[in-house]
Give the backbone structure.
Amino acid sequence: MKVLVATGSKYGSTREIGNAIAGELSQLGFDVDCMDASDVLGIHFYDAVIVGSAVYGGLWRRDASALVSDNADELRRRDVWLFSVGMSGVKAPRQETNEPRELTSLVKAHEHHTFDGALDYDRLNVGEKAIIRALNPPKGDFRDFAAIRDWARGVATELRAVAAL
C-alpha cells in the first residue's frame, strides 16, 4: 500500500513529526513518501494520505490546508488522516478556528489528531516574538515521539483492516 505523509512546517518541528510517522509506517511494511505539502504534485499515486500542519494563530499553514482543500474530491476516495501540531495549552485570543475540523469533514478523514509541538523562541521573527511575549506560552520541545509512533501504528492497523476488505 502506497502512503503519502505531507506536512506544512515553518521551522521543522511538524516536518520531524511527519518523518517519524513515515518512518514508523515504513518499518511496518508500507511504501511511504514523506514530503512538504508544498512539494506534493498530486495524490493520485497514493492509496492513503496523512497530512499534518503546524498551527499558528489557530490556523493551519496555507500549503497544508490548500493540499487538502484543492484535492478534496480525490481525498474523499482515499483513506485520510490529518494532524495538527501546536502548543495545546496556548489559546490565542479571538483566533479560535474550526479549520482542522472543517478539513476533516471535507475529506471524510478517519481522524484529526493534535500533537504538542516545539517552541524555540530564538528562531522566531520579530512579529512572532511580540505575539509570544504577549501570550507567554511555555517554551521548549513538547513533542512526544513515543505517542507519535503509537498513533502511526494505529493508522497502520486501520490501513491493514481496510486493505483486508
The domain at 2-164 is CATH 3.40.50.360 (Rossmann fold).
